[in-house]
Amino acid sequence: SAPAAPDPLAQLNAEQRDAAMHGTGDTAHDTRPLLVIAGAGSGKTNTLAHRVANLIRHGADPQRMMLLTFSRRAAQEMERRVGSVLQKALGLPGTQSLPGLPWSGTFHGIGARLLREYAGRIGLEESFTIHDRGDAEDLMGMVRHDIGLSETKNRFPLKGTCLGIYSRVLNTRDPLEKVLQDTYPWCSAWEGQLKKLFGAYVEAKQQQNVLDYDDLLLFWAEMMAEPSIAQEVGERFDHLLVDEYQDTNRLQSEIILAMKPTGQGVTVVGDDAQSIYSFRGATVRNILEFPSQFAQPARIVTLERNYRSTQPILDASNAVIGEAKERHAKNLWTDRAASHRPQLLLVPDEASQARWVADEVLRQREAGSALKSQAVLFRTSSHSAALELELARRSIPFVKFGGLKFLEAAHVKDMLALLRFAQNPRGRMAGFRTTQLIPGIGQATATRLLDAMSEAAQPLQVLQSFDVPSQAREEWTRFAALYAQLRDPAVAWPADLELAKAWYLPHLERLHDDATVRKLDVDQLVRLAAGYGSRERFLTELTLDPPQSTSDQSGVPHLDEDYLVLSTIHSAKGQEWKAVHVLNVVDGCIPSDMATGTQAELEEERRLLYVAMTRAREHLHLIVPHRFYVTQQSGGGDRHMYASRTRFISEAMAEKFERITWPQAGAADAAAGAKPSAPVLQVRDRARAAWR
Ligand code: ATP
Ligand code: MG
Question: What is catalyzed by this enzyme (predicted)?
Fold first, then answer.
């Protein structure tokens, strides 16, 4: 027989191997659910990938595995890792194609697919469209206005706050009263009105055949409450595996339980010390309660060896998280010794912070760390503004993750609304946005049209024969023709997008002075579309998992190019770099000024710093600008603030860091550009000398 292929599991340590092999081979009789709980960089994600590969090698069908990750990117990365493990294990040549994992993705993405598939049986229309956060807020605002709760009249909470409350009620499964008490105490007086508002909001979504993000989880959970469907859906999957379990919410844990009540085939991995999404309703209680949640108790595997970071980086990170009020003590160790400690850099202001980082990034590159192996992390998207300018000035290529506004740009929204309106003629937000692009069509006309369309069996005919104000008539005819084509099944994707673009461009030019720049985004949208099989898929996935970076937009990954990563800490979860530079490690930024209200909020900020620090493999720099700029949330203008080192790094842990002041005394003035330095040369003297 052929020589045995290398066993990929041999690379794992004993605990990792136990987790990867649980329920297969010698332990095939063990049907317990599995929980891997372990600290940062201990190989949880890596173990999960090996587990998937190992299950497949033991005959599991990849079509019958559901793999839930935090982002679509993470799912793709997992699929790649599983593929490479399998490739080695099976001794396949690199060209051989491997089984994909068709059911890997985010909870929301997988939920959308299941709901569309089961739509007919659970009272949904298959053609439903999905509201992004902006649409959901706008609809909430519209409903709020319609039932007479306008903010101007009686200071009723803003539409964003209303949506936040509604969303929290659904995701935490707590009653409205408790959510108000715990999280929105200043809105408690409005409980009755809010209830009425949410009732009307739910009604409106139904009438319009739209779902919001929360519905994707809620309806999935509801669907699983029907025993016949629950059994059928549950039985379609032999394995259900979840990464980053510490950031799931109640609704998500309910779904897992309903999918697999016995716990057989369920694997979750997570780290309670890295829970950073409680503002979205995530709760570490999920991890804590997992062991006793199913018909049989779970097997728990803990991992203690860290493979990512050097000992000094671990020491510093452990010191920071060690002061957390609540956590499972973990003893992470590593054999990656290093002589240098993480650096704490004291700089005068954000401009010098930007200069220092740019210098350091280049220094690291000189020393052999490609830009790609480095990242700059920050608490809030706006914190990188000064650095972005500095990088651009020095032509250092970078991509930015998190907080990207591509889909929020008006022209991109216009295009997407057009497609959504074609997909679902009853969707009001899309309908309003689209029809009002036409001069002469105002709110009143749009309302009449949409009312008529939503009641008609043939909405297209209603639109085609609709009587519009005379100045709009000519353009309306063109629009009606486009709409007919977009509704025509014979016009295939993405040809319909090209038609939409052709119709839209003249409007773009009319509406915006900077149309040329905006047109580039529209072009990018079209390019992006090529990666999706259908309009429905495109709209769903773009809404659920918008492009995360400036490079994602083009749909073309930077394969060869070297670039620096800029990312919010939240978006950096699960990833690692050789060198990590963290900006604004000062009180007011970490912890954020807006998160110092309660002990729980503060604790989450501490975990956030821990997540940032544990992304680093070899070099970690925490930068502390003495002065920084704050953008006021509620008017009042921006202002400078004097800040001090974050409270999470106490004097007692100071020896874990190397403290550096930059620029050093003496060099300060020159570097800060405050005073011109003494000239090294006097050209006029030379000129004079020539005539002497
Ligand atoms: P996080 O909590 O940040 O998500 P994690 O626990 O998921 O971290 P991984 O990302 O899976 O950790 O692994 C961290 C690093 O350690 C990766 O570079 C991975 O390749 C490496 N690693 C994991 N296990 C081993 C091992 N047994 N031998 C060598 N390297 C390993
Ligand atoms: Mg991980």
Answer: ATP + H2O = ADP + phosphate + H(+); Couples ATP hydrolysis with the unwinding of duplex DNA by translocating in the 3'-5' direction
Q: Which of 115-124, 386-395, 544-553 has the lowest average pLDDT?
A: 544-553
Q: Which two tokens stand for residue 398?
A: 């970078």
Q: What is the C-alpha separation between 112 and 109, in angstroms, rounded?
A: 5
ipTM: 0.99
- The angle formed by the CA atoms of residues 371, 377 and 381, to the nearest 5 degrees, is 115
Determine whether the annotation assigns residue 470 to a binding site: no
Dihedral of CA atoms 598, 172, 142, 408 in degrees, nearest 10, equals 80
Which among 7, 42, 46, 287 is the best mutation to test ligand 1's pocket, defined by most ligand atoms within 8 Å of the CB? 46
Give DSSP secondary structure letters for 112-146: HHHHHHHGGGTT--TT-EEE-HHHHHHHHHHHHHH
pLDDT for 474-509, tens place per residue? 999 999 999 999 999 999 999 999 999 999 999 999
pTM: 0.86
- Of 46-60, 211-225, 366-380, 640-654, the range with the lowest mean pLDDT is 640-654
271 in contact with ligand 1, CB cutoff 6 A: yes
3-state secondary structure of 317: helix
CA distance 330 to 273: 9
Which helix H or strand E contains 548, and what residues bound it?
Answer: none
Which ligand places an atom closest to the C-alpha of 42?
Answer: 1
Nearest to 257 by CA among 164, 173, 165, 169: 173
Question: What pLDDT digit, counting tens, does each position of 77-115 carry?
Answer: 898 899 888 888 776 665 555 668 999 999 999 999 999
Within 8 A by CB and 6+ apart from 480, the residues are 463, 464, 466
Helix/strand/coil (H/E/C) assignment for every residue in 494-515: CHHHHHHHHHHHHHHHHHCCCH
The response to whether residue 12 sits with its C-beta less than 6 Å from ligand 1 reads yes
* CA distances for 138 relative to 134, 135, 144, 322, 432, angstroms: 6, 5, 10, 43, 11
CA distance 214 to 223: 14
